Amino acid sequence: MTALSRRTFLAGAAATGALFRPSAAQQAEPFAAALEEAASLEQLNALIIAREGEEVAARVFDGPGLDTPVNIKSASKSVLSALAGIAIAQGEVPGVEARLLPLLADRAPADIEPRTSEITLEDLLTMRAGLASTSGREYGPWVVSDDWTAYALRRPFVAEPGGRMIYSTGTSHLLAAALTEATGRSLLALARDWLGEPLGIEVPPWTRAPEGVYMGGNNMALSPRGLLAFGEVYRRGGIYGGQRVLREDWIEASWTPRVRSPWSGGAYGYGWWIGSAGGHRIYYAWGYGGQMVYVIPDLGLTVVMTSDPNARGVDGHVQALHRLVARRIVPAV
């Protein structure tokens, strides 16, 4: 079956309910138009729509299944934010006002600007470190360096710490290095213990920097259903399976707009993007290529989308995913 005919078949099946068990068909019927539109998006691999924690529509259009970990790209930044919140709740780090350099200990090189001492954990969470970006065209030189933490710290200041937003995975990596040093454990171990175990999801190893720190803010792998569980713990106010995973005030702080992206105009909190549709506030994790977790608390909705992470022309695709949520899924509820 060709890709086009496969998409046509999936779209028709989604619209008619041919792929559902009877009980699932009743639940998914309001989302038939959303599923039909989703089937037409060539880069979209999987979609899960859940209401009050129950999957009402789940589709694989291409790629791995719903329980197979996939690269979530920069949606990793939202996961990193959760780990920071748990570290603070457990007293491993003092709080968001804590300065970065004391937490890094010996990982900080000596030849860095004095202003680096002003950077706080909150600056890292909100992309306001002031250091030049290591994303976009600067990503390649950063990841071929022999110490990603030192490289990020040596970037020149293009703004004051706590000033404007400068999107940079190197900034997130500094947060990962701080958590690694402060806890004495790898970011992988923290993710498995603090999120993987309570949420019942697999957290496989991901990219590790030459200095030994697991990459902060990119290239983590979670399955679509793992992403659903992650979104659900936020929607449920930090409780999952009757267990407190995140503090509720951390979720509120993470979902409070603090800066705006200079290139997308989107509001950003602690590792989460913030938007709205149909009068409803939407909070979302966003990874390159269309790795998305949308949480709409007042509708009881969590929506997960994973996409081809290697496709070109991803900007138009991500906008199509935003429209799918705003124009199809939210109105269906």
Task: Give the helix/strand layout.
Elements (H helix, E strand, L loop, with lengths): L2 H14 L5 H7 L3 H8 L4 E8 L2 E7 L9 E2 L4 H14 L10 H5 L16 H5 L13 H5 L4 H6 L15 H15 L3 H13 L21 E2 L1 H12 L3 E2 L2 E2 L3 H7 L4 E2 L6 E2 L4 E5 L2 E8 L3 E6 L4 E7 L6 H19 L1
Antiparallel strand pairs: 1-2, 1-12, 3-4, 5-6, 7-8, 8-9, 9-10, 10-11, 11-12
How would you describe the overall organization of this protein?
The chain is α+β, with helices and mostly antiparallel strands. It has two domains: 3-68 and 225-238 and 267-332, 2-Layer Sandwich (Beta-Lactamase); 73-187, no CATH class. The chain is 39% helix and 16% strand. The protein has 13 helices and twelve strands. It has an eight-stranded antiparallel beta sheet with strand order 2-1-12-11-10-9-8-7, sandwiched between helices. Strands 3-4 form a two-stranded antiparallel ribbon. The chain has a two-stranded antiparallel sheet with strand order 5-6. Helix 4 packs across helix 10. It is globular. The model is unreliable at 1-22 (pLDDT under 50).
List unreliable stretches of 5+ residues. 1-22
- Quick check: average pLDDT? 92
Describe the largest sheet.
8 strands, antiparallel
Distance between the termini: 34 Å
Structural class by sheet pairing and helices: alpha+beta
Helix % is 25-40%
Q: If classified by CATH, what would the architecture of the largest domain be?
A: 2-Layer Sandwich
